[in-house]
Amino acid sequence: MSDATAADLHHILDSQRAAFLQDGPPDLKQRRTDLRRLKAEILKRRTEIVRALKTDFGQRSERESAIVELIPLVQSINYMIAHLGCWMKPERRHVSAYFQCGRAWVVRQPVGVVGIIAPWNYPVSLALVPLATAIAAGNRAMLKPSEFTPATSAVIGEIVQAIFPPERISVVTGGGDVGAAFSALPFDHILFTGSTAVGKKVAEAAARNLTPVTLELGGKSPVVIAPGFSMQRVADRVAFGKLTNAGQTCIAPDYVLVHENDRDAFATAYQDAVKKQHPGGYVGSPDYTAILNAHHYGRLSGLIDHAEAQGARVIRLGSDSATDHILAPVLLLDVTPQMAVMQEEIFGPVLPVLTYRTVEEAIAFINARPRPLALYYFGGNRAERDWVLKNTVSGNVTVNGTLMHYVQDDLPFGGVGDSGIGAYHGKEGFMALTHARGVYRQGRFNAATLLQPPFGRLADTITNLILR
Length: 468
Ligand code: NAD
Description:
alpha/beta, Aldehyde Dehydrogenase, Chain A, domain 2, 7-stranded mixed sheet, 6-stranded mixed sheet, 16 strands, globular, binds nicotinamide-adenine-dinucleotide
């Protein structure tokens, strides 16, 4: 596919908007049929998708791709099919005593045409879950996948082309310049997934058209381990969260805050957990994924080197391959907040460990930094857990685990502050991409009609009654 030009983008948007106005919003049956066709086409091309991901990453675990890209995608489509009827029902609202005989309700209206911009790290699910959500909400959509996963983008384009005409759904390709032109289009909503830096640009461009945005961004998601908690359980789950897709996950645990007395126990348990999950090493492994490209491999190596130069203890848990961008897991001890690895989202299999003396100190550390996309708390004391949750703000939380809030279809998924604006998944996705239109039907009689000119004594009495 060749890159879209500004003229192409405008033409597609105009034709989608005209078709939306002409055909009107699709009914429940149509939306369910479209979602089922999308799911069937994804399943039909399962092998093709997994191969394309492998081509784009060089080494990407086929099983992991099926588990972390396709299962959440298919599950979320199933969930939408099952609950859409309920979400689409008009919702009756309260009418005050003075307006009795009238009726009020809310209808969730499709907004029109939604622009979707996707990143490279989970290029299938982060393009197609937003697309399925736009379809469930009754919209038309234009989708721009990442330029860094061309093979996967081509398959996504074929999936969409096989089932939808371009005036319904369209996939356009290109890099940052196309992204900039795309986000300047007067869409009815933009759903962007990517970095905080680019998210700010998208928000700026959208503001010029007063286009509402949902921004799914990144950041540093901390893990807080309560003093004395079982380190083996923590280490297994942190290793799983950190090493899935080699740490190239927006909600990957970025760094660990552990009590100073437990630091060594955690470090030992983490090394054991990593070895247990990847007994065969990393280069050429069917279960481990490469870093996307030389740029990110170099960036991660730079973070490790900088930390080491600043006095961190670097524990490398396997051998790497610079040629194939394969970076084995790395544990960093004696880390300080000033190190570069603590200044930016890591997005790789590098785990810095910081220590605290009191849980309050750990929470103050988190609260002094931008609000994270995810927060992970491990602990067995309910009062302390509640205190931590009450005194922190993050997009989402998983307690005693990592990543798993993402696959709860009935939970909103999104960030807060620097990690994002708005949320999607399940019902919240449907709400984000529809307009809540309040409708009031006035009854034949109501007290309000007595408050019209010419005003008399009765109007005074009613006014005084209301303003008691
Ligand atoms: P990115 O921001 O560099 O790119 C994302 C998309 O934006 C790409 O399609 C790109 O072409 C496009 N783009 C680039 N410049 C643009 C511009 N000026 N205007 C509009 N679009 C533009 O992000 P990335 O490197 O692909 O992905 C990694 C980042 O995404 C990480 O920060 C990660 O945490 C975040 N992320 C967030 C989520 C989430 O759900 N919150 C999920 C995955 C990734």
